[in-house]
Write a structure and sequence with these properties.
Layout: H1 6-18, H2 29-38, E1 44-47, H3 54-62, E2 69-73, H4 78-86, E3 91-94, H5 95-109
Parallel strand pairs: 1-2, 2-3
Helix pairs in contact: 2-3
């Protein structure tokens, strides 16, 4: 998970762990991409507020072996939401939708364990 907001990161991590998911936080796009390639997670989550480098995310999604990637951010950040879509992520949602339906979204997009 690419996230720099400690408050939301802890809240998200605790909710996902309570459902039996493993959670790994990455503070930079480079660390997120490296973890996606090496650890092969079943889902990647990106907080738009973390300032992702979309070119690196696009390179990851273009490889075809990237995990599904769920992005959430402010509905007012139209450029960021569009950039995420252009980078080939699996789903982009507003902060409100993510926090209301986080577990449903995760369960919908998580790749089955290999």
């Amino acid at each position: 998970m690419l996230n720099k907001d400690l408050f939301f990161g802890v809240k998200i991590g605790n909710a996902l762990r309570a459902e039996g998911f493993g959670v790994q936080f990455t503070p930079t796009t480079e660390a997120f991409v490296t973890a996606a390639r090496l650890d092969r997670p079943n889902l990647g989550i990106i907080d738009l507020n973390a300032g992702p480098e979309w070119a690196a995310i696009r390179a990851l999604t273009a490889e075809g072996e990237s995990p599904p990637i769920l992005v959430f951010g402010s509905h007012l950040d139209v450029d960021g939401l569009r950039a995420a879509k252009a980078a080939g992520v699996t789903r982009v949602v507003s902060n409100g939708e993510f926090h209301r339906n986080m577990l449903e979204l995760v369960n919908r997009y998580v790749r089955p364990a290999r």
